[in-house]
Structure formats: structure tokens, C-alpha cells
Amino acid sequence: MKPTTGRIVRYRGKQGLLAMRAAIVTADIETLDPRGVEQGLIPALDSDQHVHLWVFTPGESGGFTEYNVAPGDEPGQWSWPPRV
């Protein structure tokens, strides 16, 4: 399944406890603005499976952005939530 903007995914952190967090896809290969990439405002995506994310965290900051995130189960990657 191809990731699309607005979908909820899971993101495993790269630092600290490598915690699994909820995230939302903020840009995919179809919705990424090429003008922003050309101007250096936002990174390009390496493939149609890579996405930009807003990762939700507990606490005052509420979250952080991750760019050009690949799919997978390793730290720094996104995956689909399990079906329940």
C-alpha cells in the first residue's frame, strides 16, 4: 500500500529509547511541492515509499518533523499500524 498525505503511521525513534510513536504523513511523492524542493525549503523524497512526517510526542512540544523517512521496522523508519 502506498503512503498518502494525512494517513496515520507508526515511527520508531532514532535516539534515546527508540520509542514507537504515532505520526501523520505530511507529504508524499504526489503532494510534495516541487517549488519548495527547488528553493531548498524542504528535502526531496527518495522514492514513492518515502514520506515527510509529523511525529507526535507526549509533553509540551507535542512533536517534531522527520523528513524523507523510509518504510521499515528499524529506528528512523515508518510502518503501518497493526490491524486490531
Offer a quick outline of the entry.
The chain is mainly beta.
Features:
5-stranded antiparallel β-sheet
Number of helices: 1
Strand content: 25-35%
Structural class: mainly beta
The quaternary structure here is single chain
- Sequence of secondary-structure elements: EEHEEE
Rg result: 13 Å
* Helix percentage: under 10%
Question: What is the 3D form?
Answer: globular
What is the domain tally?
A: 1
Query: Distance N terminus to C terminus?
Result: 18 Å
Biggest β-sheet description: 5 strands, antiparallel
**Unreliable residue stretches:** none
Tell me the total number of β-strands: 5
The order of strands across the largest sheet is 4-3-2-1-5
- Mean pLDDT equals 94
Report on this structure.
With 84 residues, the protein is mainly beta. It has one domain. Helix content is 6%, strand content 33%. It has one helix at 34-38, and strands spanning 8-12, 20-27, 51-56, 63-69, 78-79. The protein has a 5-stranded antiparallel beta sheet, with no helix packed on it. A hairpin with a 7-residue loop joins β1 (8-12) and β2. The longest helix has 5 residues, at 34-38. The radius of gyration is 13 Å and the shape is globular. 18% of the residues are buried.
